[in-house]
Amino acid sequence: MTEIIFFINQVVISGLVLGCIYALGAIGITLIFGILRFAHFAHSELMTGGAFIAFLLASAFAAWGIVTPIPTGFVVLPIAMVLAAILALGIDKGFYAPLRKRGAKPVTLLIASIGVTLMVQGLIRLFFGAGSYSFFENEPKEIFRIDTSALGSTRPLVITEPQVLMILVTLVSVIALHFFLTRSRLGKAMRAMADNADLAQVSGINTALVVRVTWVIAGALGCMAGTMLALDVTLKPDLAFNIILPIFAAAIVGGLGQAYGAIAGGLLIGFAETLAVFNWTMLFRPLNAILPDWAQLPSTLALVPTEYKLTVAFVILVITLLVRPTGIFKGASS
Amino acid sequence: MPLIELKHVVGGYGGAPILNGVNMAIEKSDIGVIVGPNGAGKSTTLKAIFGLLKVTGGTIEFGGENIANSLPDKLVPRGLSFVPQEKNVFTSMSVEENLEMGAFTRKDDFKATMAWVYEMFPVLGEKRRQPAGELSGGQRQMVAMGRALMSKPSLLMLDEPSAGLSPRYVIEIFETIQRVNAEGVGILMVEQNARQALAFATKGFVLASGQNRFTGTGAELIADPEVAKSFLGG
Amino acid sequence: MIQRSLTLFGGLFVLILVVGWVMGLPFTSSRLVEAAAYALIALGLNIQWGYGGLFNFGIMGFLMVGGAAVTFISYPINPDFWGSDGPMMLGRALLAFAIGALLVLAARQAHRVGITGKWKGALTVLAWFVAYVLYRSQLDPAAAYIESAGGGWVGGLGAHPVLGWLFGGVLAAGIAYVIGKICLGLRTDYLAIATIGISEIIRALIKNMDWLTRGTLTVSPIPWPTPLPQNYQAGGMDIASSLLLARAGYLVLALVILAAVMWLISRAYAGPWGRMMRAIRDNHIAASSMGKNVTARQLEIFVFGSVLMGIGGAMLVSFVQIFDPSSYQPINHTFLIWVMVIVGGAGNNWGALFGAVLLWLIWVISEPLSKAIFDMVSYWSTNVGWGAIPEIEARSAQMRVFVLGLVITIALRFAPKGLIPEVVKREG
Q1: Is residue B41 part of a domain?
Q2: pLDDT tens string A159-176
């Protein structure tokens, strides 16, 4: 039993947390691709920027002496998401909209998004330096240890408060997004534009409005993902830059343009990464008692060494591109 | 005053103009049919009205105002609707959602209009929950027309509504168009099945090289030996 | 057009003189050598993107491969390794790799013995897994042995650095061939993401295969192909002149290679090969319907470009004399090159060359320049009583990333075809 609890701690919980973060980031990328038809690399900077906005707000709360029952990072999240959405709108207006107006190709927009990545990252580094920050300077990071001895385990089930909140918040956001896309007029218009932008325009759908809504959602969810990542680990200027590729992998594996695919892809990549570096000996150790001497399990039995954790996502990505380039949910093909 | 009146419209996609002075006038009771050889500017005329390409000369009067170069999101609420020739349904969305998208610009309750569309196309009512991409060609054309009717237009423009359909469906679509017209919606359409379409047209326009060549009622054009020889295949 | 290019190159020359005057000759001479190497790399990207329209975002991977290759060829031999069991163990790992590869190939031919469809797929996956386990079972102990008792790492071969550069090109070509075979059918943005992914895999491998590359322990000093400053100093020369003379020697070698490459590709591009490439880039479908083998040509161009990247990466590593896998970043080694080519003018070799030198200068002087500006502002703000700017050193170091982003953004908006754009010839 101890082994199973260890497995849950190491794989199920961390895979789920990572998967949630990837999924929230990938939704933004997939929506932007669906509506504007380009791979938005600067999404990482929306995430990092959003996390820094949340951090500044949380620091302000701490400075004003406001004490909250849940981690301040979660309390300020709604405000930070609004600000990040405004940031996303500003970036679009300042950098992408003029290029779209000129009729630039998607490739040009992709390169422009690299430029935005560099500028935002440069600015963040300029103001915050290259060091890392923690949301938990002024408050404790609560850790729940659930005693599982009743189940015959010597280990407790360990999960931190931010992780619990993170999973809940992701769940709520995904359900809200689902209702938005299937029930609301604007949500349906977004799906319509992703499906067939010309026809959406012909139907009289205000495409400029849809584009703005897309940036608002992408910015807000990106801020959520970035803040959560910063709450789970630490906040640094290259926070999301380092995981933008797994997030792209999640969006592509799920099928670019497919919001549900992005969620599935995010969870898939998250679990694949944790499973690939998991030391299976820890789970199957009890078998050593019944295995003959020559077949004893080695002390480490992981599919790939921990140093290669990030490459798992790329391998999945490359295999997906080769075997089923449209993703597991059929994605946009043009 | 006609519902829509084009006066010497000139336009194109930048570069040399495709339309070199098109004149047309359609009443609310009219079914206008545009015919002509390939590249004559038939579809281009519809797109010019709908703001999808640049109009550099002439006027397009609709409801007494010049609407040249207005964009669809302004034109649809004013009573103009357009059914493109290809890719005219949202394939991943259900039939009902397709219709809702047609009503995007409406702020009032559109349930009655939807019921009217389902009455007009009973098969769509049966398949309202199915993704439009799973329907047959003829049914898709109905979804596209239904979508365009959801904004309660006073003028419905159709770009080759019978293209790619089996003869049985062509007849059905043409009948539906006449029914829609009978309910008080002006029609302006481009057709390759020229003879068949002119048979019920109240106004016919033969375009060539982006200009009107012949104008008259459908019956007049069919009867005109020169039109028949040059444009209707003898 | 020509006049514009001449003016721009003249301006660049003046900029070099100014940098030389302000920052000093030793600094500037080093930067020029590096600029020559970057020009070679930018030419490689110009071939791929400007000629071929191929979106290679994995430049960093090719630079690292070139760097690893030059250490392997030109670093002195490590007798501890060759005297240990290491070579034999590596041989076994190689054998395991070969057997694994055979297994996979055999599984892919399974349809010949009647295994088809899903079963063949399952068999192929199983073969991959078995091959992977087999390889790891031999390689892991070999790596552990070499790193602990077998001399630490395999060391070099002690050959001439120029051979190392060539090997860098060859290795990059081999890897580009494999990547191209896999990825070139993909759409542009997918190709970009796939190549980034592959370059990250290459980085992870080189960083962590300590037995082969020494990983984060870094390899140095890597020998020069031309005499080092120390050689001149041994002859009694003072330090400043020895630095200059040695770097001038390196620069001359780099420029000779650059000029030769420029001449070769310009000739090829002006000929039928270049015409075909342009046709393919501008109209994929028309070119393939005219019977051109588009995929094969694209693969050719991808490999050619990557060779230049490999050689350029190797030249950079030789010059700084240290191979440090952790110093490679996508910003510095992929995006920077892209900005060079786009700002310079994609599709025009002179444009790529110009962009490379200009951007490299901007990149290296933006740090001291922003420090100077910060110092000035800080002096002023202290005087008016607002206090000094804290951590000026650290902040200035970050400015170059921002400047790079600013440059590409401005270029895309105001000169989307680059400063020296492609000359579109109307043919026939």
Answers
A1: yes
A2: 999 999 999 999 999 999
